[in-house]
Design a protein that fits this description.
alpha+beta, Helix Hairpins, BirA Bifunctional Protein, domain 2, 8-stranded mixed β-sheet, 3-stranded antiparallel β-sheet, 13 helices, 21% strand, elongated, RNA-binding
Length: 425
Amino acid sequence: MLQIQVLRDQKERVILGLKKKHFQDAEVIVDKLVALDDDRKSIQRNLNDIQADSNKLAAEIGQLIKNGLKEEAEVVKQKVATLKIELKNLEDALKQKEVELETLLITLPNLPHESVPVGKTPEENEVYKMSNIAIPDLGENPLPHWDLAKKYNIFDLELGVKITGAGFPLYRGKGAKLQRALINFFLDEAHAAGYEEIIPPLMVNEDSARGTGNLPDKEAQMYHVTKDDLYLIPTAEVPITNIFRGDILDEKVLPIKMTGYTPCFRREAGSYGAHVRGLNRVHQFDKIEIVQFAHPKDSYDIQLKMLEHVEGILIKLGLPYRILRLCGGDMSFSSALTFDFEVFSAAQKRWLEVSSVSNFESFQSNRMQTKFRDENKKVQLIHTLNGSALALARIVASIIENYQCEEGIKIPEVLQKYTGFDILN
RNA sequence: GGAGAGAUGGCAGAGCGGUUUAAUGCGGCGGUCUUGAAAACCGUUGUACCGAAAGGUACCCGGGGUUCGAAUCCCUGUCUCUCCGCCA
């Protein structure tokens, strides 16, 4: 959520930013918000004054009663009674105004960083970097990963359908082992980069979902356990980022770096077609997430370091990748700057998104009220960042496609100590 | 799931209708003393909002209520602890 003060102080910048994100009627809504805030202030001023009067009179009554002046006290009580009616009205008006303000403010997306390219669709994303890893030559008829899965019994989507439903893959045998190898490899990489490992809850309450912006914006994306009013996490970002919800941190502890492996659950309502085939888009997948809580002055440097971290993993896995800087129209609601990593899945001949590294600046921390005390002892909002390092299902898809050969599927060297085998067949 | 107890400032812990703008201790910060440090002593130490400032208002788990006045009384929700039951 944006801060109302920013709308007041930097109106032009806000409107331009909203437009870059293709937010409709930016001027009108910003004006309306400022007007609502003006109303709020004036009501509050009024309310505070009357409360002050009322408090004084109450103290007076206390004194009068203490001194045995009962009749005089009664007179003052009458005065307070009229104030009380007014107070009640003002309190209601204030609350209503605050709700109105927040309901509208929460609909505003984060402002894009100045480096965000103008554009509306994924085609307008900027290719920030292309890897120099060669796309493998797979010969005549390379198999897509769903066919390889059948051939080598790596995972089974039909069984997933039987047990649960579409989009819940079941990994087996060496496929399951490969999955586990990747999880351990990614966690070890994150640990080596200084991230503390977290095993968070896989369900979160409403406050947490709201804190990271998954509610109300992306409610349809999450599985909701209505009986207990909990949400299955769509990413470890949600529980991990919420660790510091409502806290004021010491500047000295920044940046805080955390990583976590979790399964991720996404409803992906309305998805269909060839591009969601196999592991390309599923309802449950494994992901290792890296999260940082940063001083505002450092957050963009930190984002670049996170990019390097993800890049390093892809290089070790030998997967051809490219990094995109997302345009205003393709970025997520809460992000100020997002880089996507895509790997080339050589049999499908498609780029698959396997990581998204975002800087949210203070957009999440404003909702979560996560702050830090700066060198002048002033309290200010922290910056939050996160990225996938990495998302499993699609990495598996591209590994098995890109490493297929006559004898089976070669295992990238860095993974062999985790899998315990060098070929999957 | 059953029974009981509880939720107060960074922590510990008092307060149970009117100098509480929350005692006291610990911790933090600043200072005195000291070559330096420790100890001792003195001061200071929450957040949000309104206000140019002075200052004001709100917040003692959340929500509602009683009262001129609520941390304190009532209702309700949530959570925690203890005991019992069940259980990986």
